[in-house]
Amino acid sequence: MNNQQHDWSIEPQNSLLDLKLKDTWAYRDLLWLLVRRDFVSFYKQTILGPLWFFIQPLLTTIIFTFVFGNLAGISTDGLPQPLFYMAGITAWNYFSECLTKTSTVFKDNANIFGKVYFPRLIMPLSIVVSNLVRFGVQFLLFLIVMGYYYFMAKEDFSITWAISLFPLVVILMALLGLGLGMLISAMTTKYRDLAFLVTFGVQLLMYATTVIYPLSTAVENYPNYAWIIEYNPMTPLIETFRYGFLGNGTFSWSAIGYTTVVTLVILLVGIVVFNKVEKNFVDTV
Amino acid sequence: MSNIAIKAENLSKAYQLGEIGTGTISRDLERWYARIRGKEDPFLRIGETNDRTSKGSSDIVWSLKDINFEIEQGDAVGIIGRNGAGKSTLLKVLSRVTSPTSGRITGKGRIASLLEVGTGFHPELTGRENIYLNGAILGMRKKEITRKFDEIVDFAGVERYIDTPVKRYSSGMYVRLAFAVAAHLESEILIVDEVLAVGDAEFQKKCLGKMGEVSKGEGRTVLFVSHNMVSVNLLCQKGILLNHGNLQFIGDVNKAIERYTQIEQSMSSIYINKSTANYSIEEVRLLRTNDRVRLSFSDLIKFSIKLNITDSIQNVHLGVALIDKWKRKLFTSTIPINQKAIYLLSFPLNLLLSGTYTLDIATFIPNGANFNYIKDICPFEIEDFESESAIYGHADVGVINVECVWE
Question: Quick one: signal sequence residues (chain B) (predicted)?
Answer without folding.
Answer: none
